[in-house]
Design brief:
heterodimer; A: mainly alpha; 1% strand; B: alpha+beta; three-stranded antiparallel beta sheet; 3 helices; elongated
């Protein structure tokens, strides 16, 4: 039982704003929320540029929601009207409609750039390590929601690329044995991508996914502010408290990080506006050329490529040919043997890994390469969620890892970028071979992490943050 | 735990019953919502069989008609085109069309022409790639050309991921597409009139 309600008594000559705030605070924890979540949230004092992308992601989220609301006022989710409502009405007839639309379409790409950089930060400084596993998982779920938002949203302009991109992705589900064809029929609501599909994608894009996304963002932030931020040194600032009860190396977010983040926002908006005003199509990367043709179910465009942010994973899908399956099978067999020889897992876990390995190998012999392409495609995304449990390094931050670990990260990022680049181009025999090599590197980075992350000579982690006052 | 109360089994029973009843209502509501996503009656009706007049399709030419929103090819093959089919056999993934994609291969099309034996020159196939649903393009010219092998004998090329098909819409080996293109159920109403989506065994 809490204490009974008590009105805060302020002196009669207190300013009106103070009285109003006290009145609200007695009824709703407004000041408490602000202080817990930002105002008196103590963060390590040595954040660098990598730490701007969280608040930038928040900014882009708000931008997408606001511009999205205005776009729905003119957009028509109807197979006969959708293309013209975007390309004729919004882009040409509505006052400033083109700006709102370009803000929204550029915002989608900006969102992925910011989020990829935000995730890179996590990877470099081990931000996902204990006790921040849940923050990482919420973040991963946000990433999935973003991908869903981007996929559903891309169908809405009802251009050729929208249409055939959706056709290809929905057909991925038909690869699932037994239930596949019925499942993709159920997703589309018709025998092909059609008006029914457009309407339901619209519903998912404007309400269902955004609601989930907002909930996840709240969970991500609440979890972060519960355990506290990590930092480039990977030291827990809460372990070294000053007389005021806060970490000696921590500073309140407001005003210190408010000003830094605002500076980051200014820089971001400078680049963002340059793209919106001068290169909104970004040479076909942000808005693909074929999407300026209305959808035609009888004619596939010469080349179907997803937008750039999906291409690394899409390359993995394309790289899985029936020949490559043999390589994957050999890899899985080697991995299971490796687990037996070189891991400290319990006997039961090893047996479990072997059973899973054997089932997958049998599956690869019996089911088509197409199915496994979809499985690898999905795994290449989901494996990110396992990072907190794959990384066994005694230090969190790359700063105190053995120097050669940096090359491992370089190889990983190069493999990821190469996959992304190859995914934007039509496949050739050579590029397929390179994509297969990069796919192997990509998965090895994660699957071998429990071993390589512990190897080498680690540097001494300091007791206090590395910080140079300026 | 001094606050621990004796469980009133009568009340507990009612509680379980109420929750179970509520759960049934909840699950059936979810079921209703899920089934609204199925193709509607209107969409199913739009998938009815279509009649096509093929008198205007000359030898070596192809006509594309729409059935269930998908392109269906009607190709009248020349004798030279038909002669390429046996040569392709060793290079095909499934020359006898044993593995179906979305529609089982009709019995009358389980031959190398993938057509009625009495109308073997006319190929009727769903022009949707079995990889990821793109529509392959016609590449009937023989010989070396971009994206195709040098000894190309004519067929179809999927522009998305490079799968190739012969003039009976059978897929070549080691391509992203695992299966031959679908042959829809169809039947001849007269020599120059076919109906797609229906045969002697009923509608698809």
């Amino acid at each position: 039982m809490g204490a009974s309600f008590k009105e805060t008594k302020l002196p009669a000559d207190a300013p009106r704003s103070q009285k109003a705030l006290a009145w609200v605070d007695d009824r709703f924890p407004l000041s408490k929320l602000w202080n817990d979540q930002w105002g008196k949230y103590y963060a390590p004092k040595n954040f660098n540029i990598w730490y701007l992308f969280g608040s930038l992601a928040m900014l882009v989220l708000v931008l997408q929601i606001v511009t999205g609301i205005f776009l729905t006022m003119y957009y028509k989710p109807d197979a006969n009207l959708a293309f013209y409502s975007v390309e004729t009405n919004i882009m040409r007839d509505v006052h400033w409609g083109w700006l709102v639309r370009y803000l929204h379409s550029t915002g989608a790409s900006a969102f992925f750039i910011v989020v990829y950089l935000h995730m890179t930060r996590g990877l470099l400084y081990g931000s996902y390590r204990k006790p921040r596993e849940l923050i990482w998982l919420f973040g991963f779920a946000i990433f999935l929601c973003l991908m869903a938002e981007a996929f559903f949203g891309y169908l809405l302009p009802w251009g050729q690329m929208s249409y055939w991109g959706a056709q290809v992705i929905v057909n991925l589900f038909s690869a699932i044995p037994v239930i596949g064809p019925d499942l993709s029929l159920w997703i589309r609501g018709d025998y092909v991508v059609s008006d029914a599909t457009l309407n339901r994608f619209f519903a998912f894009h404007v309400i269902a996914i955004p609601l989930v996304l907002l909930g996840l963002v709240a969970a991500h932030l609440i979890a972060l502010h519960e355990v506290g931020s990590s930092n480039p040194d990977g030291i827990e600032v809460k372990e070294n408290l000053g007389p005021d009860g806060h970490g000696v190396d921590a500073i309140p977010s407001h005003p210190y990080y408010t000003t830094k983040d605002l500076f980051g926002v200014s820089c971001f908006l400078l680049i963002f506006s340059a793209v919106v005003f001068f290169a909104p199509e970004m040479g076909g990367f942000f808005l693909e050329h074929n999407n300026f043709l209305p959808a035609d179910s009888m004619k596939t465009p010469g080349e179907i490529a997803p937008t750039w942010y999906f291409t690394p994973f899409y390359s993995v899908l394309r790289a899985t040919t029936s020949d490559f399956i043999w390589v994957v099978m050999a890899g899985i067999a080697a991995y299971v043997i490796f687990i037996w020889l070189r891991s400290r897992l319990s006997y039961k876990a090893k047996i479990g890994a072997t059973v899973i390995g054997i089932i997958v190998e049998i599956g690869m012999l019996t089911l088509e390469a197409k199915v496994w392409g979809v499985v690898l495609f999905g795994s290449s995304v989901v494996i990110l969620a396992l990072l907190p449990w794959l990384d066994k390094s005694p230090v969190k931050s790359i700063r105190y890892r053995p120097s050669w670990h940096k090359y491992v990260y370089v190889v990983f990022f190069l493999a990821f970028l190469t996959l992304g680049y190859l995914g934007t181009n039509p496949p050739t025999p050579t590029s397929t071979l390179i994509a297969q090599l990069c796919t192997l590197l990509y998965f090895s980075f994660f699957l071998l992490m429990p071993w390589w992350s512990t190897m080498g000579r680690f540097k001494a982690v300091p007791n206090r943050l590395t910080f140079t006052p300026h | 735990m001094s606050n621990e109360k004796q469980v009133d089994s009568g009340r507990r029973g009612l509680l379980v019953a109420t929750c179970a009843a509520g759960g049934v209502v909840g699950v059936s509501t979810a079921g209703v919502l899920v089934s609204t996503l199925q193709p509607s009656e209107r969409a199913k009706a739009a998938g009815a069989p279509v009649e096509v007049d093929i008198s205007d399709v000359k030898p070596g030419e192809m006509k594309v008609v729409e059935w269930r929103g998908k392109p269906v090819w009607i190709l009248r093959r020349t004798p030279e085109m038909l002669a390429t089919l046996p040569k392709n056999k060793p290079e095909l993934a499934d020359p006898d069309s044993d593995k179906p994609y979305q529609l089982p291969t009709p019995k009358y099309a389980k031959n190398e022409f993938r057509a009625y034996p009495e109308h073997k020159e006319v190929l009727v196939a769903v022009g949707i790639c079995t990889h990821l649903g793109c529509s392959p393009s016609a590449r009937f010219a023989e010989g070396a050309q971009p994206n195709l092998p040098d000894d190309w004998r004519g067929g179809f090329l999927c522009p998305c991921h490079g799968s190739t098909f012969d003039l009976s819409a059978r897929v070549f080996k080691n391509k992203p597409a695992p299966m031959n293109l679908d042959i829809p159920p169809y039947m001849y109403l007269s020599d120059n009139k076919i109906v797609i989506g229906k045969d002697e065994n009923g509608e698809a």
